[in-house]
Give the backbone structure.
Amino acid sequence: MKILNLYAGIGGNRKLWGDEHEITAVENVPEIANIYKDFFPNDNVVVGDAHQYLLEHYKEFDFIWSSPPCPTHSRLAITRKNKEGWQVSYPNMKLYEEIILLQHYFKGIWVVENVISFYDPLIKPQRIGRHYYWASFTIGDIKEKINDDIANGTISELEKHHNIDLSKYNIKDPYKKRLMLRNCVNPKHGLFIFNRGYKNVQQTL
């Protein structure tokens, strides 16, 4: 199976997928892309614009996972708007552009992940924990529940929770390091959703 992993980060969602498939990951921050490549040396890692890459290459894949940037959709955006000096911005509508493109043009299996938004979603998602998922299949109930409060945990707590060790990387800014971990989909959830999607791919091939 050919898989496209967009906005790959350090690969929380991909961590437990194994190496059976041909995986292309797209991440636009070179430092983060290098960590991903270190974690998953068999993957083809592209440093670039995931949104544009999807538009140009979606036909080449069987399974697509996309996790577009979430800050402008997050409930924190509303919390912060009342703080002095916080700049209000438009929600980044690339999220919905990708959902619509995949719904209407992509023949394979797909998942788009984002945080729970401060507004009612424009396209109805499936909700799991602190995430929204739009998908071409029914994900269903994930039996293993995850403590959503972990998102507010320390770096060491997040590393333990995701079973991801960043200690050997020279990441001087603790905020950046913590953000890398916060942005990870829990690997066990990533595997559960991947397996559900994989079953659907097998039915279509």
Observations:
- Residues 150 and 158 are 7 Å apart (CA to CA).
- The chain has a mean pLDDT of 89.
- Helices lie at 30-39, 50-57, 75-81, 94-105, 155-162, 174-182, 187-204.
- The domain at 2-142+186-204 is CATH 3.40.50.150 (Rossmann fold).
